[in-house]
Design brief:
460 residues; alpha+beta; 8-stranded mixed sheet; 6-stranded mixed sheet; 7 helices; hydrolase
Length: 460
């Protein structure tokens, strides 16, 4: 009879272990091919040499500058951006300032780019709406943006989070869902933009198409860019030996403001956040430029000024999908102990074309000889979020490993985007919106507690 209580206890323990496991969503997306939209869906704007592919990003370290980028297809001029403060605009009668752009072009195999312009507007006021105008006469185009609030510890701010977007019909659904969400003020983009390299000879016209596709957002709010593997465009078979050539010509970032030596890794402050962008496809071993830069960068973050420390990287460090499994492992081994030491709050990654959110775990005890090589709960560790689910041409990554590992809190093979609402120095609310039946459905949501100011366990 003594066996019955023992068996009962074992069953209770087993049930408790199962009930504490993460969630694999029961939602099953219909597995259909992701097909690129035809090029004619996104023609150039009307007018001779009209400015197109307009996009903006933060132009300094603190948010008082904006980089305005655009393409003119035929002539290098006009390469001037006019801008004025909205409150003082008075219709067409506001005082306009002008900034000249730096203009570049490039060739890639049998493709020649248009004239790519980058102009940095400086000394802007915080939390202020500005209009800006490109082109002239009957082909001028007008846009607007709002600068972020002044950097401070309790400044609320809301980010959209998107990865691996591409330009398929699924991409369009993800993008339209984000654009229709009124909360987003800037986008954290974790890499893989146009997927031009999925086409013969890395069809660079697809870069132009993608720039037109996303312009309705990128021209009005800054996208914070991280490079992915589809930005490499390294193709020796067609004698293209310069990695990241189209990406670095088209997408400029303020890397020098954070003393980086490369636009592929850099940092910015925005409201109450400190955002660090890393490159999964650049050298990061000991003594490399990226390694040395990150070592110094993490040490100088002032959490009393910017409580929220967020990292963008393309290849995920924790991933329970068989797709790209463990591709981020060597970078994790190099840097994870630093992330724990400096209490990084969130790490966003792409690359895997599904969605996953982890528990706060680390695997930093392993030192080759001690045999300790399992992730454990760690209150000082980040939450790792894989959001490579924009909807690109390579399709869905639907094969998760089984059983679900203990570090995985929620996972789903779907396309979508996320919204991160930083409320104050201690709390941020996060939602992931799956694309379902033409609606953006909030399928995962949670509160995040700041690791520096409020390092308590978050609700399940």
């Amino acid at each position: 009879m003594m066996l019955l209580p023992i068996i009962f206890c074992l069953l209770v323990v087993q049930f408790c272990e199962v009930s504490n496991a993460g969630v694999t969503s029961r939602y099953v997306r219909k597995l259909e091919a992701s097909v690129d939209m035809p090029k004619q869906c996104f023609p150039p704007p009307p007018g001779f040499n009209a400015p197109e592919q307009v996009h903006i990003t933060q132009g300094d370290h603190v948010g008082r500058s904006m980089i305005i980028s655009w393409v003119t297809p035929i002539h290098h001029s006009p390469n001037v951006v006019a801008y004025w403060e909205a409150a003082a605009a008075g219709g067409h009668h506001g005082h306009k300032h002008k900034v000249h752009a730096k203009t570049t072009t490039y060739r890639y195999y049998n493709y020649s780019s248009g004239f790519i312009h980058h102009a940095t507007i400086r000394r802007l006021k915080y939390d202020t709406k500005y209009f800006y105008q490109l082109g002239k006469h009957d082909v001028s185009r007008r846009f607007s943006f709002r600068t972020p609030p002044k950097v401070g510890p309790d400044v609320p701010y809301t980010f959209g989070v998107i990865g691996d977007l591409g330009q398929t019909y699924d991409s369009n659904q993800t993008f339209e869902h984000y654009v229709s969400n009124p909360k987003g003020q800037a986008v954290l983009f974790v890499g893989d933009l146009s997927y031009a390299d999925n086409h013969p000879f890395h069809d660079n016209e697809r870069w132009d198409i993608w720039g037109r596709f996303v312009e309705k957002s990128t021209a009005y709010q800054p996208w914070i860019w991280a490079p992915g593997n589809h930005e490499l465009d390294y193709a020796p078979e067609i004698e293209e030996y310069m990695p990241f050539k189209p990406y670095m010509h088209r997408y400029h970032v303020p890397y020098k403001a954070s003393k980086s030596t490369s636009p592929l890794w850099y940092s910015i402050k925005r409201a109450s956040t400190y955002i660090i962008v890393l490159s999964s496809y650049s050298a990061y071993g000991k003594y490399t430029p990226q390694y040395k830069w990150l070592e110094q960068e993490l040490a100088k973050v002032n959490r009393s000024e910017t409580p929220w420390l967020i990292v963008l990287v393309h290849s995920p460090w924790y991933n329970s999908n068989t797709y790209h499994y463990m591709e981020g492992e060597s970078m994790r081994v190099m840097f994870e102990s630093w992330f724990v030491k400096y209490k990084v709050d969130l790490v966003f990654a792409g690359h895997v074309h599904s969605y996953e959110r982890t528990e706060r775990v680390s695997n930093i005890q392993y030192n080759i000889t001690n045999g300790l090589s399992m992730p454990v709960k760690d209150a000082s560790a980040p939450v790792y979020i894989t959001i490579g689910d924009g909807g690109n041409i390579e399709g869905l990554a639907s094969s998760f490993t089984e059983p679900q590992p203990s570090y995985s809190a929620f996972r789903e093979a779907s396309f979508g985007h996320a919204i991160l609402e930083v409320k104050n120095r201690t709390h941020a609310f996060y939602t992931w919106h799956r694309n379902q039946d033409n609606e953006a459905t909030a399928a995962d949501s949670t509160w995040f507690y700041n690791r520096y100011w409020y390092p308590h366990e978050e609700p399940k």
